[in-house]
Amino acid sequence: MVILGIDPGVATVGFGAIRAEGGSQTMLRCGVISTPADMRLAARLKQIYDDLLQLIDMFKPDVIAIEELFFNTNLKTGISVAHGRGAILLAGETRGIPMYEYTPLQVKQAVAGYGRADKKQVMEMVRRLLRLEQAASPDDASDALAIAICHARFAGSILYQHNGEATCSTI
Known about the structure:
Layout (H helix, E strand, L loop, with lengths): L1 E6 L4 E10 L2 E11 L6 H19 L3 E5 L7 H20 L4 E4 L1 H9 L6 H11 L9 H16 L2 E6 L2 E6 L1
Parallel strand pairs: 1-4, 4-5
Antiparallel strand pairs: 1-2, 2-3, 6-7
Helix pairs in contact: 1-2, 3-5, 4-5
């Protein structure tokens, strides 16, 4: 299964494509989509959308895993990230790719085994899990790989609806 992990934003969108087979994952490529700060917001969103369509066409992912929006303290940054997520979700929907969303806590738990792991711990675990010589760079690309790894680890689980409540069962 090819998974395209996305760390959303507007100035920088991290992406990481991995192949997950059995219990192991291999990095195909990672990087960032960058948009200039002096560009109009609508033009930046169109660039993100167009670039993401190119990535989808290049890697032909089975799924897209994206980080859920998380508002910490800066509402303005959160709104900006929400704009970027919209362009990303639209690109995935346009190509008919199933999309899965994960919270930062879920990603850290899946990759580092601890939901409160710091950025360096997560980056090191991404490096180890993907058997990379050095940590993926920049941080946004490493975060996107972590999101893809998170999905690979959850992909063996099926979500069941029972009396209106979701329960998870591992195959």
